[in-house]
Amino acid sequence: MATTICVLDTCILIDLQHGRVLAKLAQLSQRFVITDLWQMDGLSSVSPAEVAEAGIRMLHAEPDLVARAMTLCTQHRALSVADSFSLLLAEHHRAMLVTGDQPLRSVAEDRGLIVHGVLWLLDEMVCAEAVTASDAVSALERVVTGGARLPVTAVARQIATWRRLSRNEEP
After folding, report:
1. Residue 46: what are its φ and ψ, rounded to 5°?
2. Which domains does the chain have, with CATH numbers?
3. In whole angstroms, how far apart are CA 152 and each of 68, 95, 97?
4. Do 40 and 69 touch, CB atoms closer than 8 A?
């Protein structure tokens, strides 16, 4: 069975850092990649060392894809060059895109990509037993407190699910 490749964007790195679970990515079966342009956004306080510790492979921006990313930015003004490059990387590798950026999610879905966000990643961590359900609740609460714009109903539903699971975790 082939390993699923997941292209991460900058806001996912920030969310996972706020949730204090970025390093837990290394315990999942998926292969996580990010463009080296993520540092250009100027938004991330995540260090290259933290990216490496999480097992995230950094892919270098090849000139032809950067040119296509710049063209995509002009077509979709809400996307940064780094966002556009993440989308094109996901297309190029037939990978899943993991983002918390709504404009990027919309464009990616319109182009037929599979797109997930931080709720999915946290749930993957619970399923892989990288974190407990109780730890996932705490992480998600820190992500929300950190400023992530997540659908309120989906957050409440996920927290309720994890709280039910955490009752089963207790000895």
Report:
1. -75, 130
2. 1-171 (3.40.50.1010)
3. 35, 27, 22
4. no
